[in-house]
Amino acid sequence: MKAERKNNRERILDAAERQFAKLGFFGTSLRDIARTAGVDVALISYHFGKKQELFDAVMLRRAEILNAERQQMLEAAQRRHAPNPPPIEEIIDAFTHALLNRSTKGGEGWRSYFALIAQVNNHPQWGGAVMNQYFDPLVYKFLDALRDALPGCDERDLFWCYHFLSGALTLTFAETGRIDKLSDGLCNSEDLDDVHERLVPFISAGFKSVCTPERAARPGARRGGRR
Amino acid sequence: MKAERKNNRERILDAAERQFAKLGFFGTSLRDIARTAGVDVALISYHFGKKQELFDAVMLRRAEILNAERQQMLEAAQRRHAPNPPPIEEIIDAFTHALLNRSTKGGEGWRSYFALIAQVNNHPQWGGAVMNQYFDPLVYKFLDALRDALPGCDERDLFWCYHFLSGALTLTFAETGRIDKLSDGLCNSEDLDDVHERLVPFISAGFKSVCTPERAARPGARRGGRR
DNA sequence: GTCTATAGCTTGATAGAC
DNA sequence: GTCTATCAAGCTATAGAC
Predict the structure, then answer these.
(1) Is A132 an 8 Å CB contact of chain B?
(2) Which domains can be identified in chain A, with CATH numbers?
(3) Rounded CA gap, B152 and A81, in Å?
(4) Tens of pLDDT along B130-185?
């Protein structure tokens, strides 16, 4: 870990990331963070200004790394299959692989970061604005790739399927331990390799089932729920 | 609405539900709640005791109603198809219909409640314990029904697929407005009928794709990611 | 059931010495 | 860059009058 050698600025970011992930923005005090980081409270203001600005710094630090990796994986898949679009499975894999990989093998900092993302993504105030700011530029590239791979599909179908993907993925990061308890230990929410081999086929099948030209051709009226 | 006629106890619950949904447990003060409810702060302690107990009361109030409705829908589907299991689509519909219906047509209180559920489900501390307490007894009945409808499937596949369902569903309740922004207004996160007609086939296709006897028969080794 | 008053503590933020 | 000291504001919770 060699956490000892880090400077105070990084230690504050690490501590903030960890505490925000545990108890959220409001559940975490600057004093919690300072104590966890082993620095004085006033140092936080000195380096980052207000609490909200510290939060933004935490969000930004790893987002850039992730987005670069994910974009590279998408482009690699596109090159492999050019001039055809890649199969859905490979697009979904490019979208999720870097995230699950970092979460599994990146150490505690990455784990905390993803747990924080899960909370933010499901927060009514921040879910829209923050996720949009840090991640949606890349999301558009994936939506373009999916659109190419699902010819003739309806735009709204596509967006909603992305929404389901986002929800399934971020709950996985939340590491709430719920599935562990539910399955009586059979599933381990920290074993993200187990997730990955199921998430990709699950989501791919969903996209293929919903994003069809047939559904796109249906009249504006909704299909009607069962009952 | 006839909110005027409600007694103070209910008004406190309504206000707490709304404020907790907006800013979470720690982001909401008892004074916020009292102000929103139009009552004195001390009344909260009188009726509910500590802040945490108020939170529990909020969670419990609607959980019981929902679970009863969902169980009835599941049993109705099972009766319709007896002695065979119902199709996956009908099981998923029974799982989600009451939730989406209340969220759409139940008024602001229900909407807030579900937004709160989304946050709780993705919270590292409470996601496991709270959701387990209030909802998992019913979840087991749905898992039993799914197991019957997916003969020969692997247990871990089943649990993970349920996890994906839970994530996709709760993000929908969060009503973050992210998909609205992402789709430039094409999708409306408040129109849960739009969700419902896509969620059920999306999730059903995922279950059918992952929970197969073929996958269950694979060796313990994982399938190996792309790359 | 409802309200006033207040105890006792923690919070975010900053001013200023070193 | 770092720390001490401090402030005004807000917090939960309760005791006690009505």
Answers:
(1) yes
(2) 1-49 (1.10.10.60), 59-216 (1.10.357.10)
(3) 35
(4) 999 999 999 999 999 999 999 999 999 999 999 999 999 999 999 899 999 999 99
